[in-house]
Amino acid sequence: WSQLKKGGQILLMRHAVTAPGVGDPPGFRLDDCGTQRNLTDEGRQDAKRIGAAFRVRGIAVERVLTSPWCRCIETANLAFGKAEVSTALGNLFTHPENRDRQVREMRELVDVPSAGNRVWVSHGATIAALTGVSLATAEMLIVTPQQRGGFVVLGRLSVPQ
């Protein structure tokens, strides 16, 4: 939390708890949340607790990017009240063929200078492709941007209870 208080960090967050299962149902569509695995009531509460933890600690968030999947958009909006969709954060579990392109695009996003904190809400497989770290649902990884799309992993945060 102290590093986030200083600003300039990227917080990679896996979406909150969803309906049981892996991936999305066959024939799912990004433009129809009813065809996807979505947040449960527990997941919605987790997302709200994360946002409350940031507010209580006075942690400012400059920009929130999210995967286009509904569970990520909802997590971001419930936690931070705002989100911009970025295809770079899309689900690599569902589309592993996009790995090289998305990792390159995420590294380009890391390279964008920012004095404020940024939050990226994505999927376990996508975050692992970039960082090598596997996160639980609603778990967060704090990274400090470096030059040329690099970063240093500072630590992990879990949903405050």
Please describe what this structure looks like.
It is built from five helices and six strands. It is an alpha/beta fold and 161 residues long. Strands 3-2-4-1-5-6 form a six-stranded mixed β-sheet. Helix 2 packs parallel to helix 3. It is globular and about 45 Å long. It starts with a helix and ends with a strand. The mean pLDDT is 93.
What features would you highlight for this structure?
161 residues; six-stranded mixed beta sheet; 6 strands; single chain; globular; alpha/beta
List the helices and strands and how they pair.
Blueprint: H1 2-6, E1 10-14, H2 41-56, E2 63-66, H3 70-80, E3 84-85, H4 99-110, E4 118-122, H5 124-131, E5 140-145, E6 151-157
Parallel strand pairs: 1-4, 2-3, 2-4
Antiparallel strand pairs: 1-5, 5-6
The count of β-strands is 6
Biggest sheet record: 6 strands, mixed
How would you describe the shape? globular
* Class by alpha and beta content: alpha/beta
Mean pLDDT: 93
Percentage beta strand: 15-25%
What string, H for helix and E for strand, traces the elements in order? HEHEHEHEHEE
* Low-pLDDT residue intervals, each spanning 5 or more residues: none
Cα Rg: 15 Å
Strand order of the largest sheet: 3-2-4-1-5-6
In which range does the helix fraction lie? 25-40%
Number of helices: 5
* Terminal CA distance: 15 Å
Question: What is shown here, in short?
Answer:
The chain has 161 residues and is an alpha/beta fold.
